[in-house]
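note to self — DONT lose this again. spent like an hour looking for the file last time. sequence + predicted structure for the chain T wanted, 357 res
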Amino acid sequence: MGAGGRADVTRGRFGTTPAGQRVDVFTLTNGHGLGLRALTYGGTIVSLSAPDRKGDVADVVLGHDSLEDYVSDTSYFGAIVGRFANRIAGARFTVDGKTYRLTANDGANHLHGGRTGFDRVIWQAAPFSDDHSTGLALSYTSPEGEEGYPGNLEAQARYSLTDRNELVVDFLATTDQATPVNLTQHSCFNLTGGGGDILGHLLRINADRMTPVNEKLIPTGELAPVAGGPFDFRTLTPIGHRIGADDEQLHRGRGYDHNFVLNREGAGLAQAAQVVEPTSGRTLDVYTAEPGLQLYTGNFIDGRVPGRAGRLYGPRSGVCLETQHFPDSPNQPSFPSTILRPGEEYRSRTIFAFGVT
């Protein structure tokens, strides 16, 4: 299928949750070969289609065919992750002298918002369009005490497909009590469009440092230089080039599952990463105002995860480039703060720009 057409948004039914909630799917196209399907369940991006160097369009993210597979899987494919993306040590944090206990769903730690995080709730959704983009606006109210968090959080997300073949992801949140907020989009990319692993993808990350983790994948608080080691992606490097190196950090993550400290010169958008898939020619450039990027190479996908069209996903079948604040920030005073207070607005923008080479 080649690129071309007109920008459009359609809505259909995708399924019903075990609790009886209807789940809809929105299909967005930008008229230049970029297409996106997203669910009201978790704000999940089910598919994202992009053209290769020949103009042929194929899906470049991992996903499932059925709602039942999304409900039963724990891979977070394409989901909005919150209230706090990544890990919080000991499933607890203290703010303004009060300690809050969160749901422990990763051993003794809290991961990606808990057992019923933003990836497992129904978001209200409405399409929108303007002169240069077509998109989907999502909203969800997280009540006080959900997964242990303080305050009522009003969260919004927007997916926009631009006429420059960009997927723009915007998050906004407000609260009535001080609470940590750290939202991200958890799509796992495979730019081949035809399956296989991502070890041959070329990756560049604009980061001189990363945050090492302990055996439970909690940051130690150190900001370690990447120069010369297996975490050095400052120039385009195959993801698989050093993923099997005899390195303690790689052993702990079973590969890459680490936060990179992005090089920044100001508060605005900056390029965080670039991916090039040599066979298809597809490229992906990531821009964000977030301070960190979690590189995850699908190490915990066990080979039994059902993907679309009967395909089974195995380890390293996709790569996540999660723009966010650092893991465990509420317990790490030296990390950029993730505490949102009443009267403030949490805002985050990430651009995934697709192209060819």
